[in-house]
Amino acid sequence: MSTEAWIVVVVAGVLVLATLVLAVRLLVRLVKARGLLREAGIPVQNKAVFWGAVLYLVSPVDLLPDPVYLDDIGILLLALRSLHTAAASAGLRPRRD
């Protein structure tokens, strides 16, 4: 393989790894947000958003092929925003890491 091809492979690998790390970090934040809402009397639909986002992350069926985690990241961001909005409406303040 030529040098240019190796460079492309390495750059693509780094991009895939970076998006995977971002997806995992968002999943951790989502789990922490769920912990905040666990016993706060939050409606069931907001709890379902959490499980739907986690299910989509581990699902083999994606909008984009799996090496591209942008759709997974988008779903996690939407779920995280929904949970934080539910927490704010319940009068809870998110913990800072």
Automatic annotation (TrEMBL):
InterPro entries: DUF1232. The chain crosses the membrane at residues 6-28. Residues 47-78 form the DUF1232 domain. Its main location: membrane. Coiled coil: none annotated. It is a multi-pass membrane protein. It comes from the Bacteria. Keywords: Membrane, Transmembrane, Transmembrane helix. It is found in: Endomembrane system. This is DUF1232 domain-containing protein.
